[in-house]
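Thread: quick sanity check before group meeting

JM: Hey all, I'm pulling together slides for Thursday and realized we never actually wrote out the predicted structure for the chain we discussed last week. Dropping the sequence here so it's in one place. If anyone has concerns about the input, flag it before I start.
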Amino acid sequence: MSFLEVFNFNFLIMIIIALVVSCIGFYKYVYFISLGYGFSIAAFGIAMPIIFMNNLSIGTIIASVLFIIYGCRLGGYLLIREIKSAAYRNTMKKEIKDGSTMKLTPKICIWVSCALLYALQVSPVFFRLQNGGKTSVVCIIGVVIMACGILLESLADAQKSKAKAKNPNRFCDTGLYKIVRCPNYLGEVVFWTGVFVSGVDTLNSVWQWIGAIIGYVCIVYIMFGGARRLEIRQNRNYGSDKEYQEYVKKTPILIPLVPLYSVEKHKWLVG
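JM (edit): ok, ran it. Output follows.
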């Protein structure tokens, strides 16, 4: 299949959907990669079954529903935090540029790049639908991994909220945070690993493989970048705490059982 056959009008529709949803970033720069991200994924979960109504299978229906759940949960969580948490807003002002001094052209480039990336992230499911792939063992494994990722991320967020409500000035090291320091980001990686797995047995051209791999590699890279940003912030807030120092030494930052305890010095990571 040629490039234009793979990334056809239906794929262009996906990009347009992401552009429409994520244009909220022109109101507030960070929304390109937060609210725009979450709700774009949810919108894809609604759009793909409509676009490929005649090619649906149990596996792709479940995957689409999981996209809706994932996107609404993430977007809703971020929206509530944005509205209710003054501390979060103040933290983000220090860490992420508000884009007020950025010219329109760079903003448009970021907007389009984000929309393209979001479409590529869901492309394994998109290509399964486009290729008429039915529900296979690989597809079932993929959607199960996706569901596990959502559960993992949701539980991590709930555990952190509970810990912060109990002691807002202490770092969280309970529940999943005993296993890795960024279990919510781990949940993201697990979810998108499931998305990638769910479509690999139907990818039938070099361009489809390239699109799926780019989407997956980019989101994993972004999660490691997010973990680095969080590590820098926590080191600044808790670096003098002996308990925190011990916690950091024995708890991997993102991947369980992998002795990677810090990514702070890896400046090439951006998230």
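AS: nice. The chain has a mean pLDDT of 91. DSSP finds eleven helices and no strands in the chain.
JM: adding both to the slides.
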